[in-house]
Specification:
Elements lengths: L3 H10 L28 E6 L2 E11 L2 E6 L4 E5 L2 E6 L3 E8 L16 E11 L8 E14 L5 E10 L3 E10 L5 E6 L8 E6 L4
Antiparallel strand pairs: 1-2, 1-12, 2-3, 3-4, 4-5, 6-7, 7-8, 8-9, 9-10, 10-11, 11-12
Pfam family, one: YjbF
InterPro entries: GfcB, YmcC_sf
Protein name: YjbF family lipoprotein
């Protein structure tokens, strides 16, 4: 079953989403072009060299939904981006075949892991020809120390069926495994998305 955040994101992807029962759960966006760092938990998203802040609007366990002032939406599961909206090409859904090795990055220091997931992709205009469902993504994850003893680098080398190859990079806390920063693939028509997790004290 899809989580509540995934359903919220799906509602945002649908035409006329302002009339959905989920619309009242999301606060209205700020004025166009206005990018103010939120006071609470937030992401700093950088795409094509342009940075914006995304505020936390919904949370259920490790699943979180974030939105920018420009009405771009990102759903994360832990430190991984699993769905997007408002970015031209959209990552509509992610489904893992088994546990995500990124959840235990320290284990990847000694033994790399293989992972497989299925993703649904969609263009912003939601045209039928731009919809690709069940795209298989096969990955190999490994971790290595960095110059900062408190941080590990996890590299995830992937092949997406019909969409080519890419490498995600996650900088994670050596103790606890929380993702601090990352560069992640969010679809074949977009550059890598840089994500920084900001604490309320930032």
């Amino acid at each position: 079953m899809r989580s509540a955040p995934a359903l919220l994101l799906a509602a945002l992807l649908l035409p006329g989403c302002g009339d959905t029962p989920w619309s009242g759960l999301l606060p209205g966006p700020a004025s166009p072009g206005q990018d103010i760092a939120p006071a609470g938990p937030a992401l700093r998203l950088t795409l094509r060299g342009r940075a914006s802040h995304a505020a936390l609007v919904q949370e259920m366990g490790e699943r979180r939904l974030w939105r920018t002032a420009g009405n771009q939406v990102v759903e994360t599961d832990g430190g991984r981006v699993v769905a997007t909206s408002g970015l031209g090409e959209m990552l509509a859904a992610t489904r893992f075949d088994g546990p995500d090795p990124l959840a235990a990055p320290a284990a990847l220091l000694e033994r790399p892991a293989l992972a497989r997931r299925m993703v649904d992709l969609m263009r912003a205009d939601r045209s039928p020809e731009g919809m690709r469902f069940g795209v298989q993504v096969e990955c190999r994850l490994r971790a290595e120390p960095t110059e900062d003893a408190a941080v590990l680098l996890v590299e995830e080398t992937c092949r997406a069926a019909g969409e080519g190859r890419f490498t995600n990079r996650f900088w994670v806390a050596a103790e606890g495994g929380a993702v601090l920063q990352s560069r992640q693939w969010i679809g074949p028509g977009l550059p890598m998305l840089a994500v920084e997790f900001l604490s309320p004290a930032s």
